[in-house]
Design goal:
By secondary structure, the protein is an alpha/beta fold. The protein is built from ten helices and eight strands. Bound molecules: 2-phosphoglycolic acid (PGA).
């Protein structure tokens, strides 16, 4: 398993359903990784094997994994198959998976457990929708997601949490640095209640939602924000490099 303690921040590119072989080649020529930070590229799974460069601080992550370990499940990829292909990280419970593919907190919990058992670090995504935010349900939603999505075997060394307010994903709206800090602090407090102070204080909680090079520094300088999960801006290698190197 990757030793997260080595890094001061963690940055993840979530390419979603984008990219092809020539995009990939061009991207890696332009990408500038910072050795203080752990950088992870989550490409579509079919490209994962061709991604691994020779930079020791650059890793591959899948965008999803099956909740099944093996069997008659057409189209699925298991955690052990990802491990077999040297994949070190995997997004789990991204809001687009929850919204378009009916992924539940229970699915996220099972997938995360299967990944941890294979020594792959799950990046467990949580966050509230605009409607939930407007009804002042943010804390309740986050508490429920933490309670049910995060498996009991998770800790600061084998799992990452990504706070992604759904209203900020791909919308151009970003949480203010103060809003992000407040929610990350709340999430940390919930981890203290569910696990322990030593796990919560060392847990990496990263922020995602319309982060751009211009907004990166202020968000990632917040004390409880340990890096970012970047969608749209990660499709441009120069922009993503600027974000990685913003702190
Ligand atoms: P965005 O996506 O940066 O385009 O808002 C973030 C994500 O979906 O992980």
């Amino acid at each position: 398993m990757v030793n997260l303690d080595k890094y001061s921040s963690i940055f993840i590119a979530n390419w979603k359903l984008n990219g092809n072989s020539s995009f990939l080649k061009d991207y890696y020529e332009k990408l500038k990784v910072n050795s203080n930070n752990c950088t992870i590229i989550c490409s579509p799974s079919i490209y994962l094997k061709s991604l691994k460069g020779n930079n020791e601080n650059l890793f591959c992550g899948a965008q999803d994994v099956s909740s099944y370990k093996e069997g008659a499940y057409t189209g699925e990829l298991s955690a052990s198959m990802l491990k077999d292909n040297n994949i070190d990280f995997c997004l789990v419970g991204h809001s687009e998976r929850r919204q378009y593919f009916a992924e539940t907190n229970d699915n996220v919990n099972i997938k995360s457990s299967n990944l941890i058992e294979e020594n792959i670090i799950p990046v467990i995504c949580i966050g509230e929708t605009l409607e939930q935010k407007e009804k002042n349900l943010t804390e309740e939603i986050l508490s429920t997601q933490i309670k049910y999505s995060v498996p009991n075997l998770a800790n600061h060394q084998n799992a990452l949490i990504a706070y992604e307010p759904v209203w900020a994903i791909g919308t151009g709206l970003t949480a203010s640095p103060e809003q992000a800090q407040e929610m990350h602090k709340f999430i940390r407090q919930k981890f203290t209640e569910k696990f322990s102070e030593s796990i919560s204080s060392n847990l990496s909680i990263i922020y995602g939602g319309s982060v751009k090079p211009s907004s990166a520094k202020n968000i990632f300088n917040q004390p409880d924000v340990d890096g970012g999960l970047i969608g749209g801006a990660s499709l441009n290698a120069n922009d993503f490099s600027d974000i990685i190197n913003s702190i």
